[in-house]
Specification:
Elements (H helix, E strand, L loop, with lengths): L5 E8 L9 E6 L8 H9 L3 H7 L10 E5 L8 E6 L8 H17 L4 E4 L11 H16 L16 E8 L2 H29 L7 H12 L5 E6 L1 H6 L3 H6 L8 E7 L12 E5 L1 E5 L19 H16 L5 E10 L11 E3 L5 E3 L7 H14 L4 E6 L3 H7 L4 E5 L2 H14 L3 E3 L4 H4 L9 E2 L7 H10 L6 E6 L5 E2 L9 E2 L4 H15 L4
Parallel strand pairs: 1-6, 2-4, 2-5, 5-6, 9-11, 9-14, 10-11, 13-17, 14-18, 15-16
Antiparallel strand pairs: 3-4, 7-8, 8-11, 12-13, 15-18, 19-20
Helix pairs in contact: 3-4, 4-5, 5-9, 9-15, 10-14, 12-15
Length: 516
């Protein structure tokens, strides 16, 4: 298989007009009358070319806009790219992250080998320099990513690598940017890993293959270990939910258990956190089979589990001082003579029984066993992430993930991580009125509620398996894939949830260390 594009990010101290590169990138806000010092200097060297572009209306500075100028040797860069930053009053780290991703995306299309970024200079001191370095590094990886490992045609294809550098003439600024850039590069790399794993089809990634990949990932990390429960061990541990969801496939289900033990002792009061990710490697719906149209996208039903896998790798890379479990229940939901059926009653790891009314509500069946496992391991905080319900996409569209929880402080912490990471969430309810919807007359629970509020009733179902443990559920349906390319990213898996989970863990570490 072809290797995914090799991306390298570093910092470089350089004057912008003298920066020798294939493409130099600067940004401009659309609500600023006069260009900043950076653009004024470059425009003077280019003989007013930027002013003419703006006057003609070919570049407005609005979000998602960009323009490329060929410099004809007037500055050291071969090309100058202008990226729109929108309104300065609304500027956030995600404004910078997306602008950088737009630049990296365009650089790959233009077969640029060296990309030099000075987008941060437009923001002045309204954002922290280290945070900007991190956001730009994340943006480089995000925008340059292409999933083409099975494309054998090489004519006019992309370059094998992209070298990106964050440039600034000020040495102290470069040091601050570099601190954040080093973290952002790790996050960018693991998010690209997650996108590749999520994009891979079901004939490449099935539950045993995913389990092997998880074990392979832990090699080389003294702080990270992997344990796999196969179908026999699942049966021995009473994990009927995972077994039921995977009963119809020849590729038997697995529970992947990752344990991260930090090299340095966590701060006093630091909670032990469990991340739980749904990994249905392919979801046909089982006997309650899905429509054929777009069923190919059901290879992405493992996205939540892959996000957890990537977050665990990042925790080890960044040496985060938090004790962490990563639990990934993996199954392939197919129809066959051995599939679980509507009307079946399944006994889960918690001992609770579930009446099956729809075999396409399988994600909650595998998650409930993993949640109960986390509670029995006495984890203080449990966060699950899953492409769980179409109802969440109906409610929120492809713009925000649904967030449900039994703890308001945890909600606020995740909302803060969402702001920091640019991966948006919206708080939805999952209280007793929704729990009433999933009560069964012949078992403890049923696996679906009524037609309405499906995302909330699914969360209420999961809530039954965590007891008093602090818990949050992230329904990322609709956030997992770009059906068509967007200005800042290619089509395919978004890797949603990776940055969000890492930001939560980093903020938790900082809070306990007294940094926030």
């Amino acid at each position: 298989m072809k290797q995914i594009i090799d991306v390298n990010v570093k910092t470089r101290r350089a004057g912008l007009a003298a920066c020798k590169t294939d493409m130099l990138v600067v940004g401009r806000f659309c609500d600023v009358d006069e260009p900043d010092e950076t653009i004024r200097e470059l425009d003077e060297k280019l003989g007013g070319a930027i002013r003419r572009l703006v006057k003609l209306g070919d570049f407005t500075g609005k979000p998602k806009t960009q323009a490329v100028l060929y410099t004809s040797g007037k500055i050291a860069a071969e090309r100058l790219m202008l990226v729109g930053l929108g309104e300065r009053k609304n500027a956030t780290l995600d404004t910078l992250r997306k602008a950088t991703a737009i630049a990296a995306n365009r650089a790959v299309d233009l077969k640029v080998r060296r990309l030099s970024l000075a987008l941060h200079r437009a923001f002045g001191d309204i954002l922290d320099a280290a945070a900007m370095g991190r956001a730009m590094a994340e943006g480089v990886y995000y925008g340059s990513y292409r999933y083409d490992e099975f494309v054998t045609e090489s004519e006019n294809g992309r370059l094998a690598s992209l070298d990106a550098q964050i440039v600034d003439p000020d040495a102290s600024q470069i040091r601050s940017l570099g601190t954040g850039m080093a973290i952002g590069a790790v996050i960018g790399q693991v998010q690209s890993y997650a996108r590749t794993m999520s994009n891979r089809p079901a004939n490449v990634i099935n539950p045993p293959a995913l389990a092997k990949a998880a074990c392979d990932l832990t090699r080389g990390y003294k702080t990270l270990r992997c344990t796999i429960y196969d179908d026999r061990q699942l049966a021995a541990n009473g994990m009927g939910g995972i077994l039921a969801a995977g009963a119809g496939s020849q590729n038997k289900p697995r529970l992947i258990v990752l344990k991260y033990t930090p090299a340095r002792k966590p701060a006093a009061g630091m909670p032990t956190v469990a991340l739980v990710g749904k990994a249905i490697t392919f979801d046909s719906g089982g006997i309650s089979i899905k429509p054929a149209q777009d069923m190919d996208q059901m290879k992405l039903d493992k996205t939540g589990g892959i996000a957890v896998l990537a977050a665990m790798k990042a925790a080890a890379e960044l040496n985060l001082p938090v004790s962490l479990w990563g639990l990934i229940p993996a199954a392939e939901n197919l129809p066959s003579g051995s599939s679980y059926r509507p009307g079946d009653i399944v006994t889960t790891h918690s001992g609770k029984t579930v009446e099956i009314l729809n075999t396409d509500a399988e994600g909650r069946m595998i998650l409930c066993d993993a949640l109960a496992y986390a509670v029995r391991r006495k984890c203080d905080v449990v966060i699950d992430i899953a492409t769980l319900t179409g109802a969440c996409m109906v409610a929120l569209g492809p713009y925000k993930a649904g967030l449900m929880s039994n703890d308001d402080d945890l909600v606020r912490d995740i909302e803060k991580a969402a702001d920091d990471s640019g991966e948006s969430v919206w708080h939805l309810p999952s209280g007793d009125e929704y729990a009433d919807e999933i009560k069964s007359k012949i078992a403890d629970l049923k696996n679906i509620g009524s037609r309405w509020g499906g995302a909330c009733t699914a969360a209420a179902f999961l809530r039954q398996f965590v007891g008093e443990t602090r818990w949050a559920h992230l329904d990322i349906a609709g956030m997992d894939v770009y059906q068509t390319p967007v200005p800042h990213a290619a089509l395919g898996s978004t890797g949603f949830g990776v940055r969000l989970l890492i930001a939560y863990l980093m903020n938790l570490s900082d809070k306990k260390a007294g940094k926030a």
